[in-house]
Amino acid sequence: MSPRYWLPPVLWMGLIVWLSTDTFSARHTSAAFAPLLHRLWPGATPAELRWINLVIRKAAHVVVYAVLAALWYRAFRRGARLPVMQAALAAL
Predict the structure, then answer these.
(1) CB 81 within 8 A of CB 12
(2) Is 5 within 8 Å of 78 (Cβ atoms)?
């Protein structure tokens, strides 16, 4: 089993753990993204900007975990040489 297939999902999981800290909580990211969101939608109310921030954060969760599933699929498929369905189920 080559580490080249197993290391990427493990490192990605480490990134997810780091991004799950308080530093990247909604309170902190909304303060960081508020000026950018306000520039993109200058007429948006504060409530609308909070909603946009929420949608962006939830979409980011979907993307981050989809990448993780793809990395695990690759590791199980190529690293462990599992059949397609077994690798897909293991990745999920």
Answers:
(1) no
(2) yes
Give per-residue pLDDT as tens, 42-73.
Answer: 999 999 998 998 999 999 999 999 999 999 99
Neighbours of 68 (CB within 10 A): 17
The residues near 84 (Cβ < 8 Å, ≥ 6 apart) are 77
Residue 69 CB partners (closer than 8 Å, separation 6+): 91, 92
Burial of residue 22, with CB atoms counted within 10 A of its CB: 0-12 exposed, 13-18 middle, 19 or more buried:
exposed
Tell me which residue has tokens 């490192």. Answer: 11
Between the alpha carbon of residue 56 and those of residues 24, 26, 30, 72, 90, the distances in Å are: 13, 11, 10, 24, 28
CB-CB contact of 57 with 26 (8 Å): yes
CA distances (Å), origin 2, targets 6, 9, 12, 64, 92: 7, 13, 17, 24, 21
